[in-house]
């Protein structure tokens, strides 16, 4: 497919065209040659109106600095017939409307003579007629002596991002929720990124480590952040991507700084633990239970063979992490907590890389989904009920493991129910 040029119409320019009492005017543009992109930067009504700068479209600020000279286009009022012709021609590459026919439809359009001119047309009536929903409100044309052909155009909407999902996804409900993410490594970084995409309004990111070279093969952060604390770099990345997000960095260790975590848990609605090792998971399980918060624990096991997401809810008939593991201890079956101590490699000759980034991201995304489902179900969204409290995912399954890790096919997922608290459990007992 041939690369095609594109003209970007900022929201302010579109609003000025809509509001104009006139039938035509001119537009100033800059061009980004590397992207074959034109960006409208100025607006004028008619021939003698004031030339007004327009606010650059979001994400296009860099093109204000493009030194490619000034370009000019014109805008004209049109009817639905014109935009129906544009719609039809867009599906027929290498076809154009004869110049005479185009100028009959748009009599104010300039004659191209021996050059090519860019013409934007605005058909206000199409937005009010549901039968014309396929037709664009704005259209662009490249006009030459041979005729007028469609030119790609994108109009910046007033509402985009998560705002586009209002009415289709509980954006407002999630924007009022806060989640603590403990451990923002390869899995935790993806957890945070996914939670932000779901619309969670506040993320507290807790991790003591810096991003180093061996992390980048699997992390959502890249080489440009090497040497930075993971929580700082991830906060900056997420708030750039999601400007309404309140992301907070805590360069803390969940075990050594348990008092800080205890205070944080009073300010959030749920906690996700993606930290490696037995101690961080036990601390999160204990503190979350005492704080009355749901805890979601996620990890990969056995050198990346299996992934697990474990939900620990604040329910009297559901036990904490140690209660859930009790039936595995001493039976000869795999102890997931001890397996976590071995990790899945950091590139050192004694700890080679074993788990691939996309598998870790898959577990991070699933943990985020479980977290969001838990938040929404507590607010009455019963369609978010989960099939169980423990999900085991086969990533690179291996034979010889007993239940619940006896999965035989890659991508296979099994859900298991919670187990009740042990009578002598300190965590689950009433404080």
What's the arrangement of secondary structure elements?
Elements: E1 6-9, H1 11-19, E2 24-32, E3 37-45, E4 52-53, E5 71-77, H2 80-90, H3 99-105, E6 117-122, E7 138-144, E8 147-155, H4 171-175, E9 178-182, H5 186-198, E10 202-206, H6 230-241, E11 246-250, H7 258-265, E12 270-273, H8 278-291, E13 294-301, E14 306-312, H9 321-325, H10 336-341, H11 357-377, E15 390-394, E16 413-416
Parallel strand pairs: 1-3, 1-8, 5-6, 9-10, 9-12, 10-11, 12-13
Antiparallel strand pairs: 2-3, 2-5, 3-4, 6-7, 7-8, 13-14, 14-15, 15-16
Note down, in words, how this protein is organized:
With 431 residues, the chain is of the alpha/beta class. The protein is built from 11 helices and 16 strands. The protein has helices at 11-19, 80-90, 99-105, 171-175, 186-198, 230-241, 258-265, 278-291, 321-325, 336-341, 357-377, and strands at 6-9, 24-32, 37-45, 52-53, 71-77, 117-122, 138-144, 147-155, 178-182, 202-206, 246-250, 270-273, 294-301, 306-312, 390-394, 413-416. It has an 8-stranded mixed beta sheet with strand order 11-10-9-12-13-14-15-16, with helices on both faces. A 7-stranded mixed barrel has the order 1-3-2-5-6-7-8. Strand 9 (178-182), helix 5 and strand 10 form a beta-alpha-beta unit. The longest helix is centred in the C-terminal third of the chain and has 21 residues, at 357-377. The N and C termini lie far apart (67 Å).
